[in-house]
Amino acid sequence: MTYPLIVVPFVIVTAAVTLATLRRPRFRERMASSGLLALVLVGLTLVFDNLMIAVDLFSYPDEHLSGLRLGLAPIEDFAYPLCAAFLVPALFTLLSPRPSPKDAA
């Protein structure tokens, strides 16, 4: 089960960075947008991973996987698009300067 263990740090970092933006403005809107983006990315991953595995562009050794699959694609492959959908906007939010109170007025 190597691949599931590789995914864990990405998920932990994504959760931590996303939660760090909790008090920033528009958190709910950002989470809704990230959720929609995650659905799109997971859909694309589902289609294209299955196609690439079906035509033998790559394969995964079974002993390194959790055993859960969506079609031919191992479930571990879906962690990366999910992390990207939430981590990138969260990092952008954290790295953007906060508006000063006088700018808000």
Describe the structure.
The protein is mainly alpha-helical. The chain has a domain at 32-95. Helix content is 65%, strand content 4%. It is built from four helices and two strands. A hairpin with a 2-residue loop joins strand 1 and strand 2 (73-74). Helix 1 (2-20) packs parallel to helix 3 (79-95) and helix 2 (27-54) runs antiparallel to helix 3. The termini are far apart.
* Spans of at least 5 consecutive residues with low confidence: none
Q: Tally the helices.
A: 4
Query: β content, as a range?
Result: under 5%
Helix content: 55-70%
Silhouette: elongated
Summarize the topology.
Layout: H1 2-20, H2 27-54, E1 69-70, E2 73-74, H3 79-95, H4 101-104
Antiparallel strand pairs: 1-2
Helix pairs in contact: 1-3, 2-3
Quick rundown:
The protein is mainly alpha-helical and 105 residues long.
Write out key terms for the chains shown.
105 residues, mainly alpha, two-stranded antiparallel sheet, 4 helices, 65% helix, 4% strand, isomerase, transmembrane, Lycopene cyclase domain-containing protein, membrane
